[in-house]
Design goal:
It comes from Subtercola boreus. The protein has 441 residues and is mainly beta. The chain contains 3 helices and 25 strands.
């Protein structure tokens, strides 16, 4: 391992790992008959055969990369519990630079694989010389076996001759425009894309371009999908990842992604005014259970989840019929608005209710109140009073009430009534006549 001098054994393997032929040479033919049965009964503590590397092999060309500067190694006969390290010389001249950082995977037969990182090579370098060692997986990293050094050639340089960089804006700088220009260098003809985290956690593109023949690139960015009010120092700024890819969208070997954090002086997407409107603000118990209280809200982050909490006149949280204590809904993806209706139980207490609508991502809170009053007392319908019929009994002689039940004595005899009736007829005739004369005049 780099920076540590590891003692190397004089032999390639411990005595216990030598082949059967070596045992016969030491102990003789007679001893072999005594040793073989014991080996057959004891469990194998190592893989049979010699530790080796099968890929990449010595002299290989066009070795592919699994990622920028990464390539796979494979081999055989790794002892159980041991590990592998690949060493090379870095661009700064450091010898024995380790290339494996993620450990080694091995099966029960001693076959092993690992990913090696050659990101410290010189720019444009494709030919690399490596030394592969089998190590004990202990704190000292004791060397078990060192294979002879060999070389192979990458198809593409792990570190391109045209480094991919972002030169502007600088890390942690503040820009005074909503559309800052990003600039840098790269491989001519490659595609550069800038990505950032937009609303609802979506990965959005701030712009793309093609690297020019002079190895430079620039992008006038668009961050219009940022959270409203986001991107400033107060909201932790914006973190972007800048990629360099080929025409098929594959990242170029050695072209590490560039992460830049910067701040907007003013949020490119302003905050939407926060509001909560309740309609009606006063209603009866029956109407609240039947049609409810309509609400309309603005000012939340588009597509974020919202939590609606209602408290009754006693301060207790209201459990809405058919819902949890805190009803959850979502703001519109276009403008961050929300609407709905609050339906209370049929036996809801009268008094003032408080409403709080909270944006779970933006942490913005809109509040309002409404009042529930008792249902009006119905006005009773009057009951008709029955009338008592007049007593029809009597003797029929005028005062006693019995007999035929004639009309009451009014003081006028038949003669007087007849005269009065005649007078009314004359008057009536005179009215008709006057109306007719007037009509004929």
């Amino acid at each position: 391992m780099h920076g540590i001098s590891l003692p190397e054994r004089a032999t390639s393997r411990p005595a216990a790992s030598r082949g059967l032929a070596k045992r016969l040479a030491i102990f003789g033919a007679a001893a072999a008959f005594a040793v073989v049965p014991s080996l057959a009964l004891a469990p194998a503590a190592f893989a049979a055969g010699e530790f080796s590397v099968t890929a990449p092999a010595a002299g290989d060309t066009d070795v592919a990369q699994a990622g920028p500067g990464l390539t796979g190694f494979a081999g055989t006969n790794l002892d159980a519990g041991d590990t592998v390290q690949v060493y090379y010389t870095a661009a700064d001249g450091t010898a024995d630079t380790p290339a494996i950082f993620g450990g080694v995977q091995a099966d029960g037969d001693g076959n092993w694989t690992a990913i090696a990182n050659f990101g410290a090579l010189a720019p444009g370098q494709t030919l690399v010389s490596v030394t592969v060692k089998e190590l004990k997986d202990d704190e000292a990293g004791t060397v078990v076996e060192t294979l002879p050094a060999y070389s192979f050639t990458f198809k593409d340089a792990p570190v391109p001759g045209d480094p991919f960089t972002v030169t502007s804006p600088e890390q942690l700088s503040t820009v005074d425009t909503a559309t800052p220009v990003f600039e840098g260098t790269g491989t001519p003809g490659a595609t550069v894309e800038i990505q950032y985290t937009g609303r609802a956690g979506n990965q959005d593109s701030a712009g793309t371009t093609i690297v020019k023949l002079d190895k430079t690139w620039s992008i006038t960015t668009d961050f219009s999908d940022l959270e409203p009010g986001g991107g400033t120092v107060d909201t932790d700024g914006v973190r972007v990842l800048t990629y360099q890819t080929d025409a098929d969208g594959n990242e170029l070997p050695g072209a590490d992604r560039q992460a830049i954090v910067f701040y907007f002086a003013t949020a490119p997407v302003p905050l939407i005014p926060l509001s909560l409107t309740l309609d009606p603000t006063s209603t009866t118990v029956s109407d609240t259970a039947a049609t409810g209280i309509a609400f309309t809200a603005t000012g939340f982050s588009p597509a974020e989840s919202l939590t609606l909490v209602i408290t009754d006149p006693t301060g207790a949280v209201v459990v809405l019929p058919g819902a949890d204590t805190a009803a959850q809904l979502f703001a519109e993806a276009t403008d961050g608005s929300a609407k709905g209706a609050i339906i209370l139980a049929a036996n809801a207490p009268v008094g003032d209710y408080s409403v709080a609508l909270t944006g779970d991502r933006s942490a913005r809170v809109a509040t309002g109140t409404f009042t529930v009053v008792a249902d009006p007392t119905p006005t009773p319908t009057p009951t008709p009073t029955p009338t008592t019929p007049a007593n029809g009994g009597g003797s029929g002689n005028g005062g006693s009430g019995s007999g035929t039940g004639g009309l009451a004595n009014t003081g006028l005899d038949a003669t007087g009534i007849g005269a009065l009736a005649g007078g009314f007829l004359l008057v009536g005739a005179g009215v008709v006549f006057a109306f007719r004369r007037k009509a004929n005049a």
